[in-house]
Amino acid sequence: MKLYQQLADDLTVLIRQGALKPGDRVPSVRETSRERGMSPATVIHAYELLEGQGLIETRPRSGYCLKAIEIPTHPTHGIDLAYLARILGKHPVRACWFMTSFQNPLGALVPDEARQELVQLLELHDVPLIEDDVYAELYFGSRRPKSTKAFDHKGLVLNCGSFSKSLAPGYRIGWVAAGRFARSVGRRKVMSSLSTNIPAQEAIALYLRQGGYDRHLGVLRRTFATQQKSALQALHAHLPPGFTVTQPQGGYFLWLEFPEHVDAIDVHRKALEQGFSIAPGPIFSARREFAHCLRLNYGHEWTTASERAIKSLGAIVRS
Question: ∠ CA 66-130-106 to the nearest 5 degrees?
Fold first, then answer.
């Protein structure tokens, strides 16, 4: 049994037996981490599991708390900087976390001038940016998008990348250019996982030195661009009129918006009954918005089965 599951089970027993009563405060993440000899990440995972089961709840300023504010994002140009500016002026924001290149689920790419404006805005409020850049290598044009880190002069941007989206998800190997936070990030890495799989790192390093990764990325980009074209053609051929769909410049996601009477959760359920899956919009929103939107992943090989699935999707939406 995994450590977080064992901890969650132990706390569940205490709750069921009445040792932890309604209204009691569970031990803090730091306390539990120290007493159990577990990493903070493991404790947080266990608490999130219990919260999902309705056994505990998070209360602001009462210890363990995860509070996120959604920032509107446009499918074409990305983050709504004016909205972000208002939030930064109104709330004590501790950090921002954005996907700036081919964002999941919209596929949005933030233009260079907007990245520069974003960094200047965060510098004004001294707020760090966690830049989740895992899809940046999957561009369809001739030039890789600039990272927001390129405009960072005060070390506020933590640019994070990974091989999991562009090479193989099983490796779980990534990196971070953490700026002024490098020492703190390194310490937390040691606390949470000690070390990373050394044979996998050695294999990837050899692959990089021999040029295999660059060749792989070239093939992957062309493949995804072709599969995006096939997916768009199928959507326009089989879906009823009245929907809009993005056409990102990279990555492998399409965002579909239907008339408001279409229930994305219902569409998702009926799609599963027919043997395929499409992601409903509400799962990408803490406020359960985008109830009439869907995300389509075209990262898998496009086959006749893919075409049939889109045809079935069209029939579901019509119904």
Answer: 90
Instruction: List, in sequence order, the alpha helices (H) in the chain.
Output: 3-17, 29-36, 40-52, 81-90, 112-125, 182-193, 198-209, 212-238, 264-273, 304-318
Res. 137: pLDDT tops 80: yes
Which pLDDT tens digit goes with each residue over 181-230? 999 888 888 777 767 888 999 999 999 999 999 999 999 999 999 999 99
Tell me how far CA of residue 25 lies from CA of 28, 49, 64, 201, in angstroms.
8, 16, 10, 42
Percent of the chain at pLDDT exceeding 70: 97
DSSP letter, residue 256? E
Q: Which of 154, 185, 209 finishes a domain?
A: 209
CB 164 within 8 A of CB 155: no
**Reduced to 3 states, what is the DSSP secondary structure of residue 109?**
strand
CB 154 within 8 Å of CB 180: yes
One domain for residues 229 and 305: yes
Q: Are 252 and 297 in contact (CB under 8 A)?
A: yes
Q: Which domain holds residue 19?
A: 3-52
Residues 165 and 237 in one domain: no
Please check whether residues 112 and 201 belong to one and the same domain.
yes
